[in-house]
Amino acid sequence: MPLPDPLRVRFAPSPTGYLHVGGARTALFNWLLARRYGGAFLLRIEDTDRARSTDESTRAIFTGLNWLGLDWDEDVTHQGANIERHRADAERLRAAGAADRCFCTADELAERRRDAESRGEAFRYDRRCDRLTSDDVASRVASGVPHVLRVRVPDGDTAWDDLVHGTISFPNKDVDDFVVLRSDGTPIYNLAVVSDDIAMGVTLVMRGDDHISNTPKQILIYRALGAPLPVFAHLPMIHGSDGKKLSKRHGATAVGDYAALGIMPEAMINFLALLGWSPGDDREVLSRDELIALFSEQGLLAAASVFDPAKLEWMNGQHLMRAPIARVVELVSPGLVEAGLATGDWLDANADWLRTLVEQLRTRARTIVDLVEQARPFFGSDVELDPDAVARQWKDRDAVRDVLRAANEQLASLDSWEPDVLEQTLRALAEARGVGAGKIMQPLRVALTGRAASPGMFDVLMLLGRDRTLHRINRALDHLVAHA
Fold it and tell me: What's the rounded Cα separation, in Å, for the pair 410 and 320?
């Protein structure tokens, strides 16, 4: 199916909560399609539900989209500002004979529904208000009798060629006459959406497949208004690892939560892009530019996708490794400040050292949070000893004290503090003592970083420098004496 020309797509969230993963994926797919084919990506805030819509939720949507780097092309549309147009379109439906006034009360409809259920039948609106005379209708309207506006669903079928699922057809007998305008004059979702999409010139509606049941109703409205139909594309649901629809029970579902968990936006859009789309080969780690160049409607998948947090962390680690070091420093610096490890001014003044530290640490990190935690031993004079590392690497306290004293003497005597000199010195110490280098390095690693794992020993020594290295060895010797 060819894409429409011009291509105008939209993301239309309701500001009743955070920007969740499913919504972010929908926004991303629309954005990628627009960027790939030179179309327009539009943003509409569907805030007609005044009771549940909040400014805080609207800000959360903007924040989430901005974090992901999904920019929109025209001014944001707020659905609530277009109520008068919605009402005018509802009146056009009535004037065209596609909708009628219904004066049935909620209590009357509820009673008829109970009667139908008691007979084991599905409730359908019986169009009794269509049988009112024009004089009776005019009298009721003039008297201010509350009424809604219902679309009269015609006989036959309503079908469309879906960009994801192929041909989808609904028997109209399964679609009840539906309300488009409430008795208080406010529009129902299906009318407002169609009215706005027509006004915005939207030519492709890409959204979650939970909206498939809304589509036949919306098509009927398009046709009744004499407007051309957009192309529809319904994306599969995102499931948790248990195969059920992704929800809070599966962990974080708000995009903002993943930012706080140390996920890079580059990794998040890469991960989301592969939930319902395939580039057609085995590649998984893709940059933003690569995603734009490769994204197409042919790669859209009809099957549900599984959100795997472990896969997201792995992918984030890949992006940490591939990103320019300046980008990783930019991301990790606020975390270092927030953790109380340094001030922003100190980091700026020691930019080269910080760059070297991040370069050393990012090979072992999956997230920015991991990276901050791994950086902790390299700040401050003293280091906190991990009990497990001490238990594993300092089992023979006497032998460890002997090793650390010897290492301290050798390192303190050096005139040059360079990697090759440091390596030559410690390896010569191991050879002189008739032990493998690990017997020197591992006890020393715990003394200097407090941990059993770290970057290479000579990198650690360079990052800490002479003074902090010797200070930490002496503190480790004090600890060993105190806990002999």
Answer: 37
Of the candidates 477, 298, 453, the residue with the CA atom closest to the CA atom of residue 386: 453
**Tokens 């549940």, residue?**
52
CA dist list (Å): 428 to 44, 319, 425, 431: 69, 39, 5, 5
Q: Per-residue pLDDT for 402 more than 80?
A: yes
Asked whether 295 and 39 are in contact (CB, 8 A), the reply is: no
pLDDT at 16 over 90: no
- The pLDDT score that the predictor gives to residue 1 is 76
Structure tokens at 65: 């989209």
Residue-level pLDDT at 273: 97
| C-alpha R_g of the chain | 32
As a dihedral over the C-alpha atoms of residue 30, residue 35, residue 38, residue 39, rounded to 10 degrees, the angle is: 20
Q: What angle do CA 181, 186, 189 make, to 5 degrees?
A: 70
Task: Specify which residues 207 forms β-bridges with.
Answer: 234
DSSP tag of 364:
G
For helices 189-200 and 215-224, what crossing angle results, to 10°? 60
Q: Which two tokens stand for residue 314?
A: 């792995």
- How far is residue 342's CA from residue 334's CA, in Å, rounded to a whole number? 10
State the pLDDT at residue 251: 66
pLDDT of residue 252: 64
Question: Within 261-324, where are the H helices?
Answer: 265-273, 288-294, 309-322
Strand partners, 166: 162
Nearest to 132, CA basis, from 158, 111, 103: 103
CA of 170: how far to CAs of 157, 222, 236, in Å? Answer: 6, 16, 19
Please, are residues 284 and 39 in contact by the beta-carbon 8 Å criterion?
A: no
Q: Distance of CA 76 to CAs 38, 62, 86, 112, 483, Å? A: 19, 10, 18, 43, 65
One DSSP character per residue, 185-245 reads SPBPHHHHHHHHHHHHT--EEEEEGGGGGGHHHHHHHHHHTTPPPPEEEEEPPEE-TTSSB
Identity of residue 409: E
pLDDT at 54 exceeding the cut of 90: no
Using CA atoms, how far apart are residues 20 and 371, in angstroms rounded to an integer? 26
Torsion of CA 261, 263, 264, 268, to 10 degrees: -130
Beta partners for residue 171, in sequence order? 157
The number of C-alpha atoms within 13 Å of 320 and in the hemisphere containing its C-beta is: 27
Enzyme catalytic residues:
248
Q: How far apart are CA 247 and CA 239, in angstroms?
A: 8
Ramachandran bin of 171, using left for φ above 0, alpha for ψ from -120 to 50, beta for the remaining angles: beta
pLDDT for the residue numbered 282: 85
One-letter amino acid of 472: R
